Structure formats: structure tokens, C-alpha cells
Amino acid sequence: MRTRLTHSMEVQQVGRYIAKEILSRLKELKLLETYGLDELTGPFESIVEMSCLMHDIGNPPFGHFGEAAINDWFRQRLYPEDAESQPLTDDRCSVAALRLRDGEEPLNALRRKIRQDLCHFEGNAQGIRLVHTLMRDESHLGAGWRYFKIYPSGVVAW
């Protein structure tokens, strides 16, 4: 059975292979130092592997079909086209906090942007938001998203 996890693990293995190949060829050409990788080969491989494992983190189940389902769900409730119409009383948005209101133009501009954003869900952008939020809030969550390893060369990788 293939799952997102097996897919990500396969991508990680391919990424590791490519990283090792790049490092091997740079070493043969004596270019590791030129690119500042002479003492960072381990961290380089780790970053590539981590990136490969995380490449699908924001994507919903069923890939692009899942994105389309999320977009349709929000459109049916937020009516983003109503956010551009006048009068404001014609706004059919079912989320009270995002409904446009007379005399609240600065907030209405924000509400319009939020509605548009929610109706244009994109998995990769969501992944970036997820990782950014987790890293920003790690101290509040008690999660240690950073780790370090001391390599034989004495370099500390974060």
C-alpha cells in the first residue's frame, strides 16, 4: 500500500542519493571548499533529507482533488464574489466575522483578503505557514523543532 509517508520516504531516499552525488562530484572537482561545504557535508545531507520529508506537509489528502474540495467548500460558505459587490447587504457570507459591514472599510478590506485567501487554498503555501508557525511557537508548545549534532570536525549543525 502506498501512503503519503511511503511517498515522502521515497523522496527522502532520492534526495539523499542526489545530495551524496553532488557532494561526491564537488569533492572530485575539489570544489567543496569553494562552496563552503568542506566541513558541512553531513548537515547538507540532513537539510536535503529534511526538506524531502517535509515537501508535502501542507497538502491535503487526495492531492489536487483535496485542494479543489477545500476551495469549493469555502466558496460555498464565503461567497468571495459578494465581497466585491455592492450594496453590502447583498453579502451572503455565512461566517459572521467575515461578512462585510457598513462603516467598517478598513476591516472590510481585510475581510475581503481573508475570504479570497481561504477560497484559494494551495498546499505548498499551507506547508510554509505550518512550518513557520510551528517554529515560531515552539517554546509555547514545548516542542523542540531544532536539534544539533556535533560532527567530528567540531562543526555544530542546527
Provide the descriptors you would attach to this structure in a database record.
6 helices, 2 domains, elongated, mainly alpha, Hypothetical protein af1432, two-stranded antiparallel ribbon, 158 residues, HD domain-containing protein
Q: Return the string of H and E elements.
A: HHHHHHEE
> Could you say what the CATH architecture of the largest domain is?
Orthogonal Bundle
- CATH topology of the largest domain, what is it called? Hypothetical protein af1432
Number of strands: 2
> What general outline do the C-alpha atoms trace?
elongated
Radius of gyration: 23 Å
Structural class: mainly alpha
Estimate the helix proportion, in percent. Answer: 55-70%
Low-confidence blocks of residues: none
InterPro entries: HD/PDEase_dom, HD_domain
Protein name: HD domain-containing protein
Domain HD: 4-158
